[in-house]
């Protein structure tokens, strides 16, 4: 028995319209949510066309072997940034002419594994053992409109195709649950002096990796309560039957970060010689969506945790991409600089209770965001529907110097002074203890 995919009814119309324009094939992504019982597909998004692709089509009959994997996986990475917690790229689809249908499944299989490999590289979290790892490969014949859905296990490189059911359903997300929280961020990432050339992006990722483990170990209060992970999220709540209008139930979540890491309250201080630091500060808005078919508390919390981790990681990625675009890839080291992280905004999806998101720099016009939604998600967006969810968050990059000890005292920045104070605090305390001990010893023997 294969997996069942419940699909938003509007996707059928979208795919039918694409099939009338196909010349001679089109690929795209399936977006939705996995659950132990079934999967939900809430959007299908075509791959943005390339100018080069149009030129190749004019040269002769194209072949599926010429599929641009890099272009498709890059699109998947961009789209994944625009998905709130609980949503992911569930698979890929292809609409092709009968002549190309023969090689369709092989091409789809290759794409599924390429997309998953690309997405997994960017994640700061690891999938759980019980998590669904099947991804969908949907093939549609442009002539006969025949739909064939199969799945592949992306955790098994030798996985073979398994049949799956593809069922359309109206108002699929009408009663989904939304969880929202605001997380205050104050992350200090040291730049070690032992490394002569500091790669800021790599250091930031390492620092976020450590922070993500704190988020994983945090306590989550849903509507002010700590709930058992295996309990039903909607337990005790009334269910309104026959409601086909989008009406999301929103749960307020508080995140309590543990101060003490590990089983033992004892900890060992580590002194590291640093020549600079990166400081991330601000408050980020996070959101996750979960299906309404008896969801477990642990499913909802996991979706929100991943959104918290993803949203900060994605913003830093976007910032460094912007710096490289403006400064050039050769600029790896920076002086004292302040940067503003892009702000998160949410946009409603027509006919759905789920909202998608994007990130906006302060100088970006609304028109640029609208163009990005059309290009990445094939969805027109009205400027008045874009809701910026939060205040500004910043990145403070303190100076990176080759030899901190050679820096004149007058030129030391406040951040460097703080670093030196932190590094030498242990020595100061030790010296004070030694002085007190000698005074006590002297007084003792004098008496």
> Approximately what portion of the residues adopt beta-strand conformation?
25-35%
The low-confidence runs, each spanning 5 or more residues with pLDDT under 50, are: 240-246, 401-447
Order of helices and strands: EHEEHHEHHEEEEEHEEEHEEEHEEH
Largest sheet: 8 strands, mixed
CA-CA gap between termini:
90 Å
**Mean pLDDT, rounded to whole units?**
81
How many domain modules? 2
Keywords: Membrane, Transmembrane, Transmembrane helix
Function: May play a role in the trafficking of a subset of G-protein coupled receptors.
Family: Belongs to the ODR-4 family.
Transmembrane segments: 425-445
Polypeptide structure, described:
By secondary structure, this protein is an alpha+beta fold. The chain folds into 2 domains: 4-51 and 62-169, Cytidine Deaminase, domain 2, CATH 3.40.140; 176-235 and 248-260 and 272-399, no CATH class. Helices cover 34% and strands 27% of the residues. The chain has helices at 9-21, 51-59, 69-81, 98-101, 104-122, 200-216, 297-327, 366-377, 414-446; strands spanning 4-8, 25-33, 39-46, 88-96, 134-141, 147-153, 162-163, 165-169, 177-192, 219-222, 249-256, 274-290, 337-341, 343-348, 355-360, 387-388, 393-397. The protein has an 8-stranded mixed beta sheet. Strands 10-11-9-12-17-13 form a 6-stranded mixed beta sheet, with helices on both faces. Strands 15-14-16 form a 3-stranded antiparallel beta sheet, with no helix packed on it. It starts with a strand and ends with a helix. One of its GO terms (cellular component) is endomembrane system. It is found in: Membrane. Its main location: membrane.
């Amino acid at each position: 028995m294969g997996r069942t995919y419940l699909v938003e009814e509007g996707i059928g119309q979208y795919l039918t319209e694409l099939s009338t324009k196909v010349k001679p094939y089109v690929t795209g992504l399936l977006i939705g949510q996995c659950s132990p019982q079934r999967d939900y597909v809430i959007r299908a998004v075509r791959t943005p066309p390339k100018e080069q692709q149009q030129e190749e089509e004019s040269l002769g009959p194209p072949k599926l072997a010429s599929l641009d994997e890099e272009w498709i996986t890059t699109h998947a990475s961009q789209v994944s940034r625009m998905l709130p917690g609980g949503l992911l790229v569930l698979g890929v689809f292809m609409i092709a002419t009968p002549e190309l249908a023969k090689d369709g499944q092989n091409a789809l299989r290759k794409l599924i594994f390429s997309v998953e490999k690309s997405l997994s590289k960017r994640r700061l979290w690891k999938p759980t053992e019980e998590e669904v790892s099947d991804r969908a490969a949907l093939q549609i014949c442009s002539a006969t409109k025949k739909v064939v859905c199969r799945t592949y296990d992306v955790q098994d490189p030798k996985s073979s195709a398994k049949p799956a059911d593809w069922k359309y359903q109206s108002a699929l997300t009408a009663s989904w649950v939304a969880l929202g929280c605001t997380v205050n961020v104050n992350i200090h990432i040291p730049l070690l002096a032992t490394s002569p050339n500091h790669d800021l992006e790599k250091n930031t990722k390492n620092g976020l990796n450590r922070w993500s483990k704190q988020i994983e170990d945090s306590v989550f209060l849903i509507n002010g309560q700590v709930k058992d992970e295996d309990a039903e999220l909607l337990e005790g709540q009334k269910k309104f039957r026959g409601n086909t209008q989008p009406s999301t139930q929103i749960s307020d979540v508080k995140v309590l970060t543990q101060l003490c890491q590990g089983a033992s309250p004892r900890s060992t201080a580590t002194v590291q010689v640093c020549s600079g630091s990166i400081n991330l500060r601000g408050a980020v808005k996070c959101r996750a969506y979960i299906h309404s078919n008896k969801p477990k508390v642990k499913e909802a919390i996991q979706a929100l945790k991943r959104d918290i981790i993803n949203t900060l990681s994605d913003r830093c990625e976007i910032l460094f991409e912007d710096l490289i675009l403006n400064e050039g890839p050769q600029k790896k080291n920076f002086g004292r600089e302040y940067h503003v992280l892009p702000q998160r905004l949410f946009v409603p999806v027509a006919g759905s209770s789920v909202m998608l998101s994007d990130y906006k720099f302060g100088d970006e016009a609304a028109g640029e965001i609208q163009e990005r939604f059309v290009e990445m998600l094939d969805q027109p967006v009205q400027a008045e529907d874009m809701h910026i969810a939060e205040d500004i968050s910043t990145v403070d990059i303190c100076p990176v110097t080759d030899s901190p000890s050679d820096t004149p005292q007058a030129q030391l920045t406040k951040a460097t002074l703080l670093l030196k104070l932190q590094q030498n605090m242990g020595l100061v305390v030790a010296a004070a203890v030694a002085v007190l001990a000698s005074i006590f010893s002297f007084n003792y023997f004098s008496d």
